[in-house]
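TL;DR need structure tokens for one chain.
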Amino acid sequence: MTTLFDNLFGIFLGIEFKEESVVVTYMNNDLSGISVLSSSTFVMREPEAMANEIRDYIGQHSTDINKVFVSITDKWAITKFIDIPSMKGKAKNALASLMKFEVERHIPFEIDEVAYDFLVVDKVESRYSTVFVVVQKQKIEFIKDFLDKLSLAPNAITLSSFAVLNTVELSGVSVGGWQDVVGIVRKSDMLGNKGETNICLNFDKMYVSMAVIKNGFCVDMKSLPMNSSQSMEEFAKDIVNHLAAILHSLQDPHLNKLIVTGDATSMPGVVEQLEALIKAKAISVDHITRFSGSLRGVKMNGLSSSVGACFAGLGIGTYKINLMPHKTDYEIKNIAPMATKIFLVLAILLAIAIFATDAMNHKKALGSMDAVLKENAPVVESIHNITENTKTYKKSSDFLHSIRENEMTLEILTELANIIPRDAWVTNLHYKGFELKDKKKEGGELIINGFAASSSILIPLLEDSPLFEKVEFVGPIKKTKNKEQFKLSAKLIKPSVSEEVEISNPIKKTEPEKKEPKE
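>> reply
TL;DR here they are.
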């Protein structure tokens, strides 16, 4: 059964699809918040081979993945920022219907051939400032087919540039965890506040995306890929010219700050030229500073889009574009009601008061107990040593009794070693012995994990043995390069006396044939 906690907490996978690579990032969300656990980049090549690489990487973590969130390159999408009349007081589906009409007007495809989503980013007097993203369905199907090879399914698909904006926006605060439960939404002022105009540049090797941020919201976006015929100097000049054109088109050309993220080192000299153009120092956002996972302070160069995709899918960031079918909620801001915040503060204060009173009582009780313990410390230490020695003797005794009472253990291991083919090996073996008091013939079980060239041949080999029966697979067979990873269960049989002799003496002596006397 799926619960609220399954949607909010657990292990989430963020996957970024670029034209030349795929980035996979493990993220964890628990009550303390979101953390990055691991990340890896895979070069785009033949789908089956790349799927095997990613499958091996995922298999190393051996954790259940609750949801999968995907971001795709801007090159696959059409993105438009438009103003529409206010839908306040209109029918419930009026906004969605109007945006469908606008999407049809701006795309060269039939509406049934695309997947799209839109976002209301701001209100300007009696108009809505909106953005919509359109992607051909064949691209969505490509992603679904690829993830299907990994036995995964996408829960949300967003655009890389918006995913990056989510990561930059939340880079200075802790998010997720208990804050999601009570409805508190936090974000930093990295992208700017009301009355400010800022530019956010994301560098990704030979590709740059520019986002214009006004009043804290993205109002325009451009993507600049480097042509194969261009030199680095020519591409840097194009970036500077595009930024100059953006500044010229703004009603207020004053720029408060230039935000730089991604791999700016791949284009040396570009940031310096941009700083000279705007006559101000660029602000670099290089690290995911508040994440507490094993990659604490990890650089954002390769993770910002895959991390931001998880934010979009979880509904945490501002830019919640989702190209998968979903329940739409086009609110401009998702902020908890003031009553919820006041209730939370009162609850925290009440909890502090209760725990403070309880702590004082415990402190007094512990003080008196501490005095008694110090007085009796020598006696306690002596009893502790006797107890530890008793436990050691009992463990040794139990072990010797188990060896004496269960003589089959070594026979089972010997039989298994003779049965398993040379091209297979066992990685884990779990053996449950017999309950000898019951004197039952059947009562043991063996769980075998390992790798084999053909795992299916192991079942008849084990079934032919007098020690095993009811052999079956208890887990899926996973293909790993030229081997199959298997997990088998076999019931153990306590053989009769004659069978025990046969197993312990596998090589039988045969009597010579009696020859008939010649006539």
